[in-house]
Design brief:
Layout: H1 2-29, H2 43-52, H3 59-71, H4 86-121, H5 126-140, H6 143-157, H7 171-201, H8 204-211, H9 216-253, H10 259-268, H11 272-300
Helix pairs in contact: 1-11, 4-5, 4-7, 4-9, 4-11, 5-7, 6-7, 6-9, 7-9, 8-9, 9-10, 9-11, 10-11
């Protein structure tokens, strides 16, 4: 198992490097710059600014300078918010995004698994049709539609919950954004669970266990659920990363001070270090979560360890 994990880690390092390189090249190839909004600035002052941030160096030299700082844990200063470094922006915004993302995925996993299992056990019943119809609706409607609807109904019409702000992460400020993020995950996990459950229920070893007189609850927990968890785990790694990056929209709609909001502002203002730093954090999350999913594969299906 250790060799299996080591191979995955060895593959993750060059993957992150390639992401850093491509992101750097694409950012600097895009038209515009961080100081384009300074209309009336003296050309000499503009030249000094570009020199201070090494923007007048060749691209390869800028990349080498950035990579050298990155290896020391320094992501550089923000070009727009000059009193802040990228590290400070990430340290401030990351807890918000992580809180939103993990809360949404926990709700999506727990509710989605329950809905999928119930739908599979009541196949072709009214309950099954209702769960799958709700799941299809949840998949089809994007978060930038569900979020304003939740604000309209529960924030403005009923006035039950606040519609914006973080306020230290109080529960009432989390309910609407987390719900908007969790709805698509509940829908997808419910569909995956139902499909895998129906396939697992019809396997020969499950019929054998029932023929031996094993109680239905034991058949489900011991023989049916383990194969069901494999496709769910395969979805979870990218799903957690998707929730983290998908919070870009949610954080802007609900006015939350997370990484998503900083990413949008950085992209609009051509704040290269901020965009690079956030992309790197998201890339590390994606790679590490997929690594975690691969390790879980090894426990759920020992055959994977030998690949």
């Amino acid at each position: 198992m250790f060799a299996y994990i080591l191979r995955r880690v060895a593959f993750a390092v060059p993957t992150i490097f390639v992401i850093i390189l491509l992101t750097f090249i694409l950012l600097h190839a895009a038209p515009g710059g961080p100081f384009d909004s300074l209309q009336d600035i003296d050309p000499a002052v503009l030249a000094n600014l570009r020199s201070a941030y090494h923007l007048d160096d060749p691209v390869w030299m800028q990349f080498w300078t950035y990579l050298s700082g990155l290896l020391r844990g320094d992501m550089g200063p923000s070009l727009i918010y000059r009193e802040l470094t990228v590290n400070q922006i990430i340290v401030t915004g990351l807890p918000v995004s992580v809180t939103l993302g993990l809360s949404a995925i926990v709700i999506g996993l727990s509710v989605g698994l329950c809905c999928g299992i119930v739908a599979a056990l009541r196949q072709n019943s009214l309950l099954d049709y209702a769960v799958m119809a709700a799941a299809m609706t949840g998949v089809a409607i994007p978060t930038f539609v569900t979020a304003p609807l939740l604000i309209l109904v529960f924030g403005l019409t009923l006035a039950w919950l606040p519609i914006s702000g973080w306020n230290g992460g109080q529960i009432k400020h989390l309910i609407l954004p987390v719900t908007a993020l969790a709805i698509p995950k509940v829908a997808v996990i419910a569909r995956i669970t139902r499909g895998a459950m129906l396939e697992s229920i019809n396997m020969d070893y499950v019929r054998t266990a029932r023929a031996k007189g094993m109680r239905e609850i034991k058949v489900i927990t011991r023989h049916v659920m383990r194969p069901v968890l494999i496709p769910v785990v395969s979805y979870l790694g990218p799903a957690i990363a998707t929730v983290m990056t998908g919070s870009v929209i949610i954080e802007n709609i609900f006015g939350l001070p997370g990484l998503g909001r900083a990413f949008v502002e950085g992209a609009i203002n051509r704040d290269y270090p901020v965009v690079m730093g956030i992309v790197i954090i998201y890339a590390i999350f994606i790679v590490m979560l997929n690594l975690f999913a691969d390790i879980l594969y090894g426990f759920l299906d020992p055959r994977v360890r030998q690949k």
